[in-house]
Protein backbone atom coordinates (compact mmCIF):
# COMPACT_ATOMS: atom_id res chain seq x y z
CA UNK A 1 0.00 0.00 0.00
CA UNK A 2 1.39 3.41 -0.96
CA UNK A 3 2.02 5.99 1.77
CA UNK A 4 -0.89 8.21 0.68
CA UNK A 5 -3.58 5.52 0.61
CA UNK A 6 -4.08 4.34 4.19
CA UNK A 7 -4.56 7.78 5.74
CA UNK A 8 -7.15 8.79 3.17
CA UNK A 9 -8.99 5.48 3.23
CA UNK A 10 -9.35 5.72 7.01
CA UNK A 11 -10.23 9.41 6.86
CA UNK A 12 -13.09 9.01 4.41
CA UNK A 13 -14.44 6.06 6.36
CA UNK A 14 -14.45 8.17 9.54
CA UNK A 15 -15.97 11.11 7.64
CA UNK A 16 -18.81 8.96 6.36
CA UNK A 17 -19.51 7.42 9.75
CA UNK A 18 -19.65 10.88 11.37
CA UNK A 19 -22.03 12.26 8.74
CA UNK A 20 -19.49 14.81 7.51
CA UNK A 21 -19.36 16.00 3.92
CA UNK A 22 -15.72 16.79 3.03
CA UNK A 23 -12.11 16.19 4.10
CA UNK A 24 -11.66 19.55 5.81
CA UNK A 25 -14.58 18.72 8.12
CA UNK A 26 -12.27 16.24 9.86
CA UNK A 27 -10.25 19.21 11.11
CA UNK A 28 -13.15 21.54 11.89
CA UNK A 29 -12.25 23.87 9.01
CA UNK A 30 -15.58 24.03 7.14
CA UNK A 31 -19.24 24.35 8.05
CA UNK A 32 -21.03 23.29 4.85
CA UNK A 33 -20.35 21.26 1.71
CA UNK A 34 -20.36 24.42 -0.40
CA UNK A 35 -17.81 26.22 1.80
CA UNK A 36 -14.82 24.24 0.54
CA UNK A 37 -11.31 25.65 1.10
CA UNK A 38 -10.39 26.82 -2.42
CA UNK A 39 -13.81 28.13 -3.44
CA UNK A 40 -12.69 31.77 -3.20
CA UNK A 41 -9.70 31.09 -5.44
CA UNK A 42 -11.84 29.34 -8.05
CA UNK A 43 -14.44 32.11 -8.04
CA UNK A 44 -11.74 34.74 -8.52
CA UNK A 45 -9.72 32.97 -11.19
CA UNK A 46 -12.70 31.78 -13.24
CA UNK A 47 -13.85 35.38 -13.37
CA UNK A 48 -10.65 36.53 -15.08
CA UNK A 49 -9.65 33.64 -17.33
CA UNK A 50 -10.78 33.76 -20.94
CA UNK A 51 -12.50 30.38 -21.10
CA UNK A 52 -15.56 31.03 -23.21
CA UNK A 53 -18.89 29.40 -22.51
CA UNK A 54 -18.73 26.93 -19.57
CA UNK A 55 -20.82 24.50 -21.62
CA UNK A 56 -17.84 24.14 -23.96
CA UNK A 57 -15.17 23.86 -21.24
CA UNK A 58 -13.91 20.41 -20.19
CA UNK A 59 -12.62 20.18 -16.62
CA UNK A 60 -10.72 17.45 -14.79
CA UNK A 61 -10.34 17.55 -11.03
CA UNK A 62 -8.02 14.93 -9.54
CA UNK A 63 -8.02 14.10 -5.83
CA UNK A 64 -11.60 15.38 -5.78
CA UNK A 65 -12.56 13.74 -2.48
CA UNK A 66 -16.30 14.00 -1.91
CA UNK A 67 -16.61 16.43 -4.81
CA UNK A 68 -17.38 19.91 -3.44
CA UNK A 69 -15.23 21.71 -6.03
CA UNK A 70 -16.42 19.42 -8.84
CA UNK A 71 -20.06 20.09 -7.93
CA UNK A 72 -19.35 23.83 -7.73
CA UNK A 73 -17.92 23.80 -11.25
CA UNK A 74 -20.70 21.62 -12.65
CA UNK A 75 -23.33 23.92 -11.14
CA UNK A 76 -21.79 26.73 -13.19
CA UNK A 77 -22.21 24.79 -16.40
CA UNK A 78 -18.74 23.29 -16.86
CA UNK A 79 -18.35 19.73 -18.18
CA UNK A 80 -16.62 18.04 -15.26
CA UNK A 81 -14.75 14.77 -14.82
CA UNK A 82 -13.49 14.13 -11.29
CA UNK A 83 -11.38 11.32 -9.84
CA UNK A 84 -10.10 10.16 -6.46
CA UNK A 85 -8.21 7.04 -5.43
CA UNK A 86 -10.55 6.23 -2.51
CA UNK A 87 -13.74 4.41 -3.60
CA UNK A 88 -15.66 5.55 -0.51
CA UNK A 89 -14.93 9.19 -1.36
CA UNK A 90 -16.30 8.69 -4.87
CA UNK A 91 -19.43 6.99 -3.53
CA UNK A 92 -20.10 10.05 -1.37
CA UNK A 93 -19.26 12.43 -4.23
CA UNK A 94 -21.82 10.77 -6.50
CA UNK A 95 -24.45 11.01 -3.79
CA UNK A 96 -23.78 14.67 -3.08
CA UNK A 97 -23.84 15.54 -6.79
CA UNK A 98 -27.16 13.75 -7.21
CA UNK A 99 -28.61 15.56 -4.20
CA UNK A 100 -27.63 18.88 -5.78
CA UNK A 101 -28.89 18.01 -9.23
CA UNK A 102 -25.52 18.50 -10.93
CA UNK A 103 -23.86 16.23 -13.48
CA UNK A 104 -20.28 15.14 -12.83
CA UNK A 105 -18.54 12.07 -14.23
CA UNK A 106 -16.81 10.59 -11.19
CA UNK A 107 -14.29 7.76 -11.23
CA UNK A 108 -11.81 5.93 -9.01
CA UNK A 109 -8.29 6.75 -10.18
CA UNK A 110 -4.85 7.18 -8.62
CA UNK A 111 -3.37 10.30 -10.20
CA UNK A 112 0.13 8.89 -9.70
CA UNK A 113 -0.75 5.98 -11.97
CA UNK A 114 -2.50 8.07 -14.62
CA UNK A 115 0.77 9.10 -16.25
CA UNK A 116 1.24 5.51 -17.44
CA UNK A 117 -2.19 5.28 -19.05
CA UNK A 118 -3.19 6.34 -22.58
CA UNK A 119 -4.45 9.90 -22.97
CA UNK A 120 -8.11 9.51 -23.90
CA UNK A 121 -9.17 13.12 -23.38
CA UNK A 122 -7.61 16.56 -23.00
CA UNK A 123 -8.95 19.35 -20.84
CA UNK A 124 -9.34 23.11 -20.81
CA UNK A 125 -8.97 23.14 -17.02
CA UNK A 126 -7.28 20.72 -14.64
CA UNK A 127 -7.90 21.42 -10.98
CA UNK A 128 -6.01 20.35 -7.85
CA UNK A 129 -7.92 21.17 -4.65
CA UNK A 130 -5.30 20.46 -1.98
CA UNK A 131 -4.32 17.05 -3.32
CA UNK A 132 -0.73 17.89 -4.28
CA UNK A 133 0.45 18.37 -0.68
CA UNK A 134 -0.27 14.67 -0.03
CA UNK A 135 1.76 13.58 -3.07
CA UNK A 136 5.15 13.74 -1.42
CA UNK A 137 8.06 12.08 -3.19
CA UNK A 138 9.86 13.64 -6.14
CA UNK A 139 9.03 10.67 -8.35
CA UNK A 140 5.33 10.72 -7.52
CA UNK A 141 5.01 14.46 -8.02
CA UNK A 142 6.81 14.22 -11.36
CA UNK A 143 4.28 11.58 -12.42
CA UNK A 144 1.39 13.83 -11.41
CA UNK A 145 2.78 16.72 -13.42
CA UNK A 146 3.43 14.46 -16.41
CA UNK A 147 -0.18 13.23 -16.28
CA UNK A 148 -1.43 16.82 -16.08
CA UNK A 149 0.74 18.11 -18.89
CA UNK A 150 -0.26 15.26 -21.21
CA UNK A 151 -3.96 15.93 -20.63
CA UNK A 152 -3.94 19.74 -20.65
CA UNK A 153 -4.91 21.39 -23.92
CA UNK A 154 -2.36 23.71 -25.49
CA UNK A 155 -4.33 26.75 -24.31
CA UNK A 156 -5.57 25.11 -21.10
CA UNK A 157 -5.02 26.10 -17.47
CA UNK A 158 -3.81 24.07 -14.49
CA UNK A 159 -5.25 25.47 -11.24
CA UNK A 160 -3.46 24.40 -8.07
CA UNK A 161 -4.36 24.98 -4.43
CA UNK A 162 -1.87 23.45 -2.00
CA UNK A 163 -0.52 23.89 1.51
CA UNK A 164 2.82 25.68 1.65
CA UNK A 165 5.85 25.98 3.89
CA UNK A 166 5.09 28.30 6.79
CA UNK A 167 7.92 29.26 9.19
CA UNK A 168 5.49 29.36 12.11
CA UNK A 169 3.95 25.96 11.36
CA UNK A 170 4.48 23.47 14.19
CA UNK A 171 4.45 19.70 13.73
CA UNK A 172 3.03 17.32 16.31
CA UNK A 173 5.02 14.60 18.04
CA UNK A 174 5.69 11.74 15.66
CA UNK A 175 6.20 14.06 12.69
CA UNK A 176 9.49 15.40 11.34
CA UNK A 177 9.94 18.22 8.81
CA UNK A 178 12.95 18.28 6.51
CA UNK A 179 13.63 21.90 5.58
CA UNK A 180 15.90 20.92 2.69
CA UNK A 181 13.25 18.93 0.81
CA UNK A 182 10.03 20.35 2.28
CA UNK A 183 8.93 16.84 3.23
CA UNK A 184 7.03 16.20 6.44
CA UNK A 185 7.56 12.61 7.57
CA UNK A 186 5.35 10.62 9.93
CA UNK A 187 6.85 8.08 12.31
CA UNK A 188 5.68 4.65 11.25
CA UNK A 189 6.68 1.06 10.69
CA UNK A 190 8.51 -0.10 7.62
CA UNK A 191 6.83 -0.16 4.24
CA UNK A 192 7.58 0.33 0.54
CA UNK A 193 8.03 4.10 0.96
CA UNK A 194 9.57 4.12 4.45
CA UNK A 195 12.88 5.84 5.17
CA UNK A 196 15.14 5.54 8.19
CA UNK A 197 16.23 8.82 9.80
CA UNK A 198 18.43 8.79 12.92
CA UNK A 199 17.45 5.21 13.63
CA UNK A 200 13.70 5.85 13.35
CA UNK A 201 11.46 4.71 10.48
CA UNK A 202 9.22 7.28 8.82
CA UNK A 203 6.86 7.42 5.86
CA UNK A 204 6.27 10.50 3.67
CA UNK A 205 3.22 12.44 4.87
CA UNK A 206 3.07 15.94 3.34
CA UNK A 207 5.12 18.22 1.09
CA UNK A 208 5.25 21.85 2.23
CA UNK A 209 7.41 23.83 -0.20
CA UNK A 210 8.26 27.51 -0.27
CA UNK A 211 6.70 29.59 -3.04
CA UNK A 212 10.03 29.73 -4.85
CA UNK A 213 10.61 25.97 -4.61
CA UNK A 214 7.10 25.12 -5.81
CA UNK A 215 7.41 27.45 -8.79
CA UNK A 216 10.77 25.92 -9.71
CA UNK A 217 9.34 22.40 -9.44
CA UNK A 218 6.46 23.24 -11.77
CA UNK A 219 8.75 24.91 -14.27
CA UNK A 220 11.03 21.85 -14.32
CA UNK A 221 7.91 19.87 -15.24
CA UNK A 222 7.37 22.24 -18.19
CA UNK A 223 4.43 23.95 -16.55
CA UNK A 224 4.56 27.74 -16.67
CA UNK A 225 3.34 29.63 -13.59
CA UNK A 226 1.15 32.49 -14.85
CA UNK A 227 0.17 33.74 -11.40
CA UNK A 228 0.84 32.72 -7.82
CA UNK A 229 -0.60 33.90 -4.53
CA UNK A 230 0.74 31.76 -1.72
CA UNK A 231 -0.49 28.22 -2.46
CA UNK A 232 -2.92 29.20 -5.22
CA UNK A 233 -1.41 29.01 -8.69
CA UNK A 234 -2.52 29.34 -12.29
CA UNK A 235 -0.30 27.42 -14.71
CA UNK A 236 -0.17 26.62 -18.41
CA UNK A 237 1.91 24.29 -20.56
CA UNK A 238 5.27 25.94 -21.13
CA UNK A 239 5.55 24.51 -24.64
TrEMBL record:
<dbReference type="InterPro" id="IPR041698">
    <property type="entry name" value="Methyltransf_25"/>
</dbReference>
<protein>
    <submittedName>
        <fullName>Class I SAM-dependent methyltransferase</fullName>
    </submittedName>
</protein>
<keyword id="KW-0808">Transferase</keyword>
<dbReference type="GO" id="GO:0008168">
    <property type="term" value="F:methyltransferase activity"/>
</dbReference>
<feature type="domain" description="Methyltransferase">
    <location>
        <begin position="59"/>
        <end position="156"/>
    </location>
</feature>
<keyword id="KW-0489">Methyltransferase</keyword>
<dbReference type="Pfam" id="PF13649">
    <property type="entry name" value="Methyltransf_25"/>
</dbReference>
<keyword id="KW-0949">S-adenosyl-L-methionine</keyword>
<dbReference type="InterPro" id="IPR029063">
    <property type="entry name" value="SAM-dependent_MTases_sf"/>
</dbReference>
<dbReference type="GO" id="GO:0032259">
    <property type="term" value="P:methylation"/>
</dbReference>
